Please model this.
Amino acid sequence: MSVPLVTLLMWLVTYPARLLGLSLGRLKLPPFWLAFLRFVPVSVFAALIVPDVLGSPEWPRRLVGCAVGVGLMWRTRNLALGILGGFGAYWLARLAGL
Amino acid sequence: MVEPLRHVTPFWPAFWRGFRALMPLWLGIIPFAVAYAVTARAAGLGVGETQLMSLTVFAGASQFAAAGLFAGGASAWGIVATTFLLNARHVLYGLSLARQVPLTRPERVLAAQFLTDEAYGVTVVHGAREPGGLSFGFLLGAELSLYAVWNAATFAGALAGAVLPDPAALGVGVVFPLAFLGLLVPLLVDRKAVIVALASGLGAWGLSRVLPGGLVVLLAGVGGALLGAVLVTRRGEA
Model:
């Protein structure tokens, strides 16, 4: 199968997932499912982050970088500063041989 | 259905607020898109094919996976199934967004094409600060901010692929979790949120040893949100 055709199929399985949720949003939901949706971002972001840090072959450095990044974000509420500071800490750990 | 009276937010100011709100994430997106393009070119995709995927599929993790699978000679259906698994989580983002952003049908059709983890995260995190509440303009601004930079960086990476250093050597892998931590930290407002984040994160780590990445995010994401809903409704606090 050619690359453009595979790309088209990838698009065809991605777009409907994006549209489906947006289209069902006016459903009246019971409190349990409203609470469920409120917790979706916290849950999904954590599920994206933790395996990417602890499951990495270079996890000690990434852990240092993320700890410093979180500390900066917590204190300053500044995303760019947190990313830059975390990336810097990661490199310090890497240069230190961690 | 009775349409509730609502404050009408002007489109363009909201659009640019959304566009700017996502800009701090560019730092994480650019190396990610360049790395995708370099991987795709190394797998034998042309510049046009590499760009086409960014223009249509527009989903970083699954594009990355597809490039890797093309390189490994995986079957077309394997690539499509992996993409489906990786992107099924967008249903949850849409459900959550649709409750917070009033959207007409054409707006939904358009907003759906550009919906991503990052645009969703920025929109829900900044929503509380939007004058008059979240609007289509803010959402589309955040979405297209990512679309523009993702495609520009894809193009640059596809052209320059051969001369760039190895992304792993630059250590840019750590930027992805850092960017998502920036979205997660403001949401950790009480003990229940912290419990859900820990359970989902550690659960995903455990699952990631035995399952593909897209499925892990879906299962752990649903599991963590279910736990949160149980914690809240059991005490009658919903």
In short: Residues 61 and 94 of chain A are 6 Å apart (CA to CA).
